[in-house]
Structure formats: structure tokens, C-alpha cells
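User: I want to check something. If I give you two sequences, will you return the structure for each one separately, not as a complex?

Assistant: Yes, each is folded on its own. Here is the first sequence with its structure:
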Amino acid sequence: MLGGTGSLTPELERQVRTYAPQVERIAGADRYAVSRSIAAEYFSEATTIFIATGNGFPDALAGAGAAAALGAPVVLIDGLQTPLAPQTDALLRSMSPDAIVILGGPGTIVPGLEAALRDIAPSVTRMGGADRFAVSVAISEAFVPTATTALMTTGMNFPDALTGAALAAAGLPLYLVPTECPTTAVLDDALVRLAVEEIVILGGVGSVSANTERLYGCSTPTTDRTLSEVLLREKIVEMAGRHDGVYSVSVRELGGLQASVSVGGGSMQEPVSVIKLFAAYGILDRIDSGRFTFDTVTRSGETVHDCLRAMIHVSDNYCHWDLVALIGEQTLNNQFWAEGYRQTVYAGYRGDGTYFASKLSTTDDLALLLSRLQRGLLLSPSLTEHFMTLLETQLWRSKLPSGVAVGVPVANKTGSAWSSSGWFHSDAGIIAAPGGTYVISVLGSRGATSLGVREIGRTVYEHFNGPLASAATWSDLNSVTIGDITYYRYGSESTPLGVIPAGTRIETYGSARTFYQVIYDGAAVYVHSSGLRNYFDYPRSAR
């Protein structure tokens, strides 16, 4: 029993004696005397002694596991009072240690005491830091060369760390963290230096918040690229695991640290409508070179200009295949291969001669394409602007655009489809965030959900920009009539059914080339897209 009757009552001692044949109490006038008694009785052969202030708990707790692993005592002293107490001086000299480890900086154990300790042992090392959290990192760096498990507990109170110190005696790092989140230094030491496979959190969410479970660091975004990438990968994997389906994700930070993360990013898979990014690039590239113009007519009679807009704005499939047919699937495949998009194909042969029966892509290729677009490496300035305008004003906003803060521009292309194996849900975009522009592409399959894509996008946004209080939200009523507009039963100028009045807010739901399917008066009908405009003024990036 550690402590006198003021800490552990005689009644408690009587109860304890009913459980064990031998009970010993180590007591003293104060906490310093108790620590000296423990050291003298149980650590008389120790060659290393840890010294910590008794004026506060964090440093002693942070070092207790390392001390136990070395078979060393933790002796408490009044870290602000010199000279060293005579009783402590006598104890340390009697033990003749080879090394003394001071836990805490000069603000907790003053330099005068350090000088006194140097007169006792040939080696005196101070484990200091800017705060209690940094001290716990310094102790880990000094005494834990390898570990597969790390312990994290609150640095704001002592009970959880006190009981957890016994577990740390197995050679595990014991990190103190703020209540709301771990510091970047803690995450860096655990995830990068030690590359632990497991983190054990000591305490409930009232003492260590769920941000620690998610590895959301207090000072993320970090100033270290490697750490940023490790953290981001962990967060993506953790978030993807919460949702139905399988997700591949690629992220490229275009400024700042230029962090780059790929989670299954090289896996070729059905990209659904996100492949339209490559079709749009193929068309605009040929306009840049003079082989097409915006007035070039497709096989359906629609112009390239109008079909390109419908393909991106409302994700029209008919115009997509009209534009692909204008170039040729094999011609596009040859171009993709030559320009480094080695895992993106339409039906046909890849550059290495491999045949594919349907369109496929990867999040890595999609991220590469969007990175080049944002940096102006794909197209001329005027066509870069045209492409970005199409992407920033497209209608579908339930995924990546709903996982960022209000007012953040998102230039994206989304997609979804059903198959016998479940839903595909995907999105890829350029996010012009306050913390810097980045590219993200997500391909979800096997029962993936729109929510899963959105939450992965939000996770990436928060990694670069900090916690998001509330995300942007968008109504399904995404369009408004410019004037009185005729509506039809089918996607062509068939027999008119009536007129939708000017200024009517309406939901655009689907399309048949330049005829948009809208929900009006409870029914799905068609209107020509020229009679509609976006209801929302979607955020635009500055270029």
C-alpha cells in the first residue's frame, strides 16, 4: 500500500488484509518521503534513477513506464526549491547510480537542482519539452527504440496514466495527449518513427476525445510531409472502413507540402461517369490543336459545344458516347497510354497490347489528369478555363462538394451506377480550399454509397484545413427556368404537354443529350436545357 493513512485509511487497510496474507504499507510525511521509501526498499540495486517534480503529475507519469522497463525508481522532489532536500541527497548518494534521468524541463525542475544531481551521478540527462505532451515524446524517443503498440492517455489528469504506466513497463511508449486531440509530435513519433501497428487509448471519450481514435492531430495540417501522408492514409482507411463498399482513393496536394496519398489508387476498375473527365479532355485537346471546333457536329446532330456541356453539367451519357465516337475509343486509348495514363482505357487495346472489353480507370490516373489541368499543363489557358467552368458549375453536389466548407470551390465530376455486385459511387475533383488546393479522386464499388464518398472527401478536407464545423449543403432543386418554357413527355420536341412559368425553381433529374429531365408537378418531363440555368451560384475559384 503506497501512502500513509491520510491517503489510504486504516479501515481500507483492514479490508485489504482480508484479501492477502501479506500486506505492507509504505508511508511517509509527504509524497517525497513515500517515493524515497519505495526507491530504498524495492530499487536498492538500480543503476538508473528517474527524478520528477512532485508539484505536478504529468512528467512522473509519462516516465513511469520507461523507468519500470529499466527497473528504475521514480523519485519525486520539489522541483522549484534548492538546494536538493538532504534526505533525497543522502538516498541518491547511497544508491550510487550510474545515471540519473530528469523528467521535465527547467520550468519544472530548476537548473540548480540539475547541477546538484550532476554532483551525484556521472551521467545526468534531462527529458524536457515545451509542455507535458512534448516531454512524453522525448521520453519515448530516448527509451523506446522499437514498439508495435503505443499507449495514449490524457495529460490533463492522472488516474488513467497512473494505471496505464504498468502496461508501459513492457517497453511501450506512453504518450500524454490533450483531451481534444493528439499533438503532431505524438503522432509523428508513434506513426512515423515507431510505425506502430496498434494504438491503445487509456480512458473514455470524456478524457480522450474520439479525434484521437481518428488520428486527427491538434496541429494538423502538419509541417512534415511524411507525417502528413501517414496521417492522411490512416484517416482515409479508417473512414472508408466505416462505410459499405470498397473505396480506392488518391489525393495530391498541389501546394504546401505536396503530400500525395494513394489507397488502392492503382487498381483498375469501373469508373462510371468519372471517365467523362478523360472524354472531355480528349475533345478539348483536339479543339486546341485545330482538329475540332466547338461547332463540330456529332453523330446525333448536337454540336461539340452543347454535347460537352451536357456531358459534364448533367452527366449525360448519350453525349458522352457521341463525343467518344467522334474521336474513336482506340484513338483515345493510344493517347492515354502515350501521356502516362497507363491504367485508363475504353473498350479496346491498351498501349502494351492488352485488350479490355469495357472502360476502366484508376484514382491515380484521375488524380494525375486533374493535377495537370489545375496546373495548366493539359490545355491552353482559354480551354483550361472552359474545362474548369464546366466542372465548377456542374449540377451534382451530393459527394465531394458536400464535404467541404461553405464557399469552397469544387471542380468535380461525379458518377454512380448499379450492377449485380452493388452500387458504384465515385467522384473526382479539384478542391480550392483555404489551406491550399488539392486534388482528390474516389472510386467506390461493391455497394459503395454516396455518403461514403462524401465522408472520405470531408476527411481529406479536414486533414488539410482543420475540423469542419458545418459542411456545404445543396438542395435537389438545382435549376430555375429562365423564361416560360415548354415541356415534353420525351427527350425531344414531341407533342408539348404544357409550359413551366418563368422563374420556377425545379429539380433537374436526368437528361437525353440537350433535353433535361426535370420533376415538375410531381412528374418527370423533359425541357430543353437552353431554358434553364443553375439555381445556385456555385463557388468559383480565382484564376
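And separately, the second sequence with its own structure:
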Amino acid sequence: MNSKKIVASVIALAMAVTVVPGFSQAATAEELAAQITQLQAQLAGLQGQLGTTATTVTTSASAPAACAGISFVRNLTLGSNGTDVKCLQALLNQDAETAVAATGVGSIGFETMTFGGLTKAAVVKFQNKFAAEVLTPVGLTAGTGFVGQATRAKLTAMLAGTATTGTTGTTGTTGTTGTTTTTGTGIVMNGAEGAITVSINPTPANNVKLYEGDAKVAIYGAKIKATGSDVDVQRMTLKFSNQPYSYFTNVYLYDGETQVATSALNSTTVSKVDSNDYEITLSGFTSKVVIAKDATKVLTVKVDVLPGISSGVLVNGAAATIYVGMPSDTSVRAVDQAGLNQYSGVKMLSSTASVASNRTVTVNPSLSADATLSISLNSNSPKSRNIIADTSEDIIGATIMSFDMIATKDTLLVDSIADVAFTATTGYQIPDTAYLVDDAGTVIGTMTPNATTGVGTFDSLNYTIAKGTTKILSIKVDDSLSAVNATTRVAAEDGYQYVATVTGTNITAEKSNGAALLTAKKSGTAASNAAYIYGEGPVFTISNISTTKDAYAVGASSTMSATFNVQVAAVTGDVYVSSTSTVPFVIYYNTAAGTAAVSDITFTQPTGTTAVGATYKVSAGNTATFAVTATVSNATQGVGTYDLRMNHIHWGHVSTSVTTLSSTYMNGDSSWISQATYLK
């Protein structure tokens, strides 16, 4: 072909673009740029026929026998298997610089279908050699050994007999059998024409419900399939049945988790076609949306909802319905590997009704009007137990209770919790200081309960609870028992209780719009379990309970036994437990017929104790486990189902007084009750 014919061909191509009916009118600047890129690629090919290409061709690839019928349609990586892997090895072996192996497995004629370490190393060399084509377009500077889209495109070009060099640039290389051009579209321009098919993705589903102030909520999904070649999606036009900026502030387009485009919604960015057709085009993607041949991607539309929408727009406060979709069957544009624009879309067939070609979205008034705040005792709040002071007769940071605080339908700012009450009647103790602690362990409030009434307020909290979430708050206390009893830590305060109560209606909170949460929207009460305080003494816990039943004999009574493994921790000061079997550990049996004390109770001196008279001493700072066995017979109450339960434990500060103090907090606690057993 002579130079005059080449120039004439280029001119003809340019004229063809400009005279297609309606084409120049519909084309955007972006589309014209793509057409220019296509013409430049074709011009480069024609120049190559004149020997004027900028890149020198050094080799001409031909497809090996192992590649017959093979195409690279999937990504390959370490561990991949298949005939495409064998073809990959054969192509790599055509060049000594990228060969899988010189001899043996993987070498020429000994290719395998397994992608192993040798193959990965060869791919790295291949990618580095052709970096301009396979690495630079995807932002890489060194080979990875992963055969992804760009590497597959290069291999596909080799299969087609494309000449290759190690210096191919963005203008392309021309050889005796074909041309490959990489453009700014993010795909290798190998001349293959493609097409796209667009459909509505099932997710997000129809009838998305939005509320004032919602952010980045998905309302529409477009499923795009590429056929014929890889394509680069570059534009999507959306249609709204109502003026979108009356409801939304911004619109976003997402490729999976990646935001690729965004635009504010206003009279400048949105075009009004008619009263039921408002359109906006999202383009200038910040990340490439490349879809491999025969693959599919979903682009998702998300919106931010205005925090305040006029009642007139929301039909006097009621929800407004908006239909979202695409204005035409050409609303999505992509560029194929021939540099041609390809179009598809799902045209909205109705702007006033819910049909298959659109998505229905309802915009609702803020939920803050119905926001609520409720509290309840947390399931892991401390059960009844002993709290023992330290050697300075101080209680520091003892947890009295934990409670749940739940916000619904709006984010709430809690300012104060008033009238937190510590029971102040006879037998109860009012702590010196109380702390409000969140579930991260941060102290968010402090108060000093009234020394007479036990009531106080956690003020100036400035604590946020997000909509639909639960916060676990705890009340902890400090108390000095030496101030209560100046003579000895084991006197009047022994066995006094801390009991705290929090009431939901006493909480002051604001909604997200700054309005106060009304009393009617607050509910719940949380009351702690009793905590018994001692200047010195034990903490009793149950490690396990084992239950046995004897073999049933006709005419004889049946019996059951339960062994309670009771851990006695002498936190501060020595603790004494009577060695008389029936005295320290009081166990009841329980049946449908009634409850009564068990008389058959046995235990032996546990390890870690000292026998002192008729007692066992657990020294301060030590823990001993008492294995206490109780046995009951159905001769007592007759046939029925029995369980055994620890009722209370006697103990003392000194060996001569081991019955004056009793811990009863285990009574009724399920962890101190044996397995129920039926006695015939």
C-alpha cells in the first residue's frame, strides 16, 4: 500500500465518524476522545506497513502445539491446573529469557498442567520483560507471578501470532502477523470487538426504604456482562422519576467495595428532561472498571439522604416514592479491545409505577420521632457475692452491677443519669464514690452518693449511643471501711450490702436533631444483685457439682448424691470453717413435695488448710477446695424428682466463732444447684 492510499484511508475513517447520522450530535467529549484513540491505533498500524513504527520488532510469536484450542479466560496462580497452564509453559519456553526450565520437567517438550514454583518464576521474568504492557497499565513495577487480566491479554496476543518485543510501549508494536495497542482505557487493544449486556442486579432488592440522614445506602445495581472481548466501562447514566436533589445530597457508583464515581446532586449536575425524568451521567471513573471477556461485574448506585426534607416534599410528613433506573438502552458505555464504544442499558418503561425495568425507593421522615432508650440488667452482671476489703480496709473499684442501654431508631447523646440509688436502710452500705464505666473500661462519670439517702447523679456524660446499638455500662465503687469502723475491720459492717438501682426515666438524652428524648420514650430498670461487704473474709465459688444415683432395687429406697466442690478464698485475713460435717455447709433437697435441709452431709479436710481445734483454717491469701457430698433418699419424701442445692455457708474470723457469720448469696443461684434426678 502506498502512502497516498494510507492517508486516504485515514481521512475516510475520520469522515466515517463524522457523517454517521446522529452520531456526532450524541457523542460526548469523552466519546470523541475514545474515537480519536481508535483512529490513532489504526493509523499506527498503517504506518507500520510503511516501516515507520516507533518500536522495533525482534521476534514473531507462533502458537505452540500445546496451545491448540486454548484461550486464557481465567486467572492463573500458584496451584492452578489445566491445559491452559501447559499452554502457558509452552509460550514461556519459546523465549530463553522466560523459559520455565532448561531441561527436565517444565522444559520444552516436557511442559505440565501444574502451575508450580518454576512456572511462577518464569511468569515473573515474562512480566518484567513486557512490563510496559502487563505491569504499568495496572500500576505495578515488578512481576508478581500472578497471571491476571493484563498478562492474559499479552499471552492471548502471542497466541494470535502477534510479534513481541521487550520494549513494547503504549503506542503498540507491529509485526508480520498482527498489531497490539495498549491505550488509556486500561485494556490491551488487540483488535477484538466486543459487546456488553446490562440487566438489573437482584441486589439491592426492590423497595429500599430510606430515612432522612441515611448515608451511602444502595438503591440500584446494574449487572454488566462483556462478550467478544474485554471491555472498560466508562460511563453510566441514571434516571430519577422525581427531582433527586429534593431528597438526596450525593450519588455514588461502586464496583464491589470500591467507589469509582461520585457526584453532588443539584440543578447543575442533574438534567431535567420532563417532570418525571431527571438524569445524571456518572463518568470520569477514579478506578478502572475492566470486565474480562465472558465475565460479569455489578455496579451499585448509592445515595446520601438529606438530613431534613420539607414536609411538603414528603407529602405532609408521609413517605415519598421515587423510581430509579436508566433512561435508555444505551445508558452504559464501555470501550472494547478494538477501541470501539459499546452500549447497553435497561430503559425505564415507567416513571410512575413499579415495573421490572426500575427500582422503587421510598424516602421516609427521620426515625428520631420514634427513638427510644431502654435499660435492663446485663446478663453478665455480677451475681450476689461477697466483696472483701484490702489490708488497708478499703474497697477499690468493685463492680456492683452492669446494665444494657439500648438506643433505637436514632443516635442518642446521653447527658446524665439521675437518681442512681444505693439502698440506704438498715443492713445496707452507701459507698464513698461511684463510677460509671463503659464497655471499653473508660470512666465516663463519677458521683458521690448522698451519705443519708444513698442517691446521686452521673452528670455531664456526653456519651453517644448509635442508633440500633447496645452499650454495656457498669457501676463500680470505692469505699473505706476504716471510716465506718474505727476499731476493727470485722465489726459492724460485716455482711452489709451494696444494692444499686438505675431507672430509665431518670436518664436525660438528646436525639440527633438536638431535641430532648421525651420521658415516654425512656423505659426500664436495672437493679443489682446484693454484694455483701466484709473488712476481711472469704469469697465462695462453686467449681463444679457431680451427681450420682444408686442402682435401683425392688423394695428398697433409691438415693442420690451430689458433691459440691466449693472454693474458699481467704481474700483478706484468715477464714475458719467448722470441721463438723453438718454445720458449715447447709444443703437442701428440693422436690415437688417440698424443700428441707439434708442431714447426710460429709467432707474431709481439704489440701491447703490447717486443723485448728474443731475448725479448718484457710490462711489469708490462699484458696482451698472443699468437696462436700450430700445424700438424700426417696424414703424422705417418696418417689419423685430431686435436686440438691447449697443454701448457705457458715464461717468465722476466728476459730472460736465459726457460726456467727453466714454467706447466703448462693441460695437459689442455678450454678449452686445439682442436676435433677428421678428416684423410683
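Because they were folded independently, the notes below concern the second chain alone. The mean pLDDT is 84. The two ends are 109 Å apart (CA to CA).
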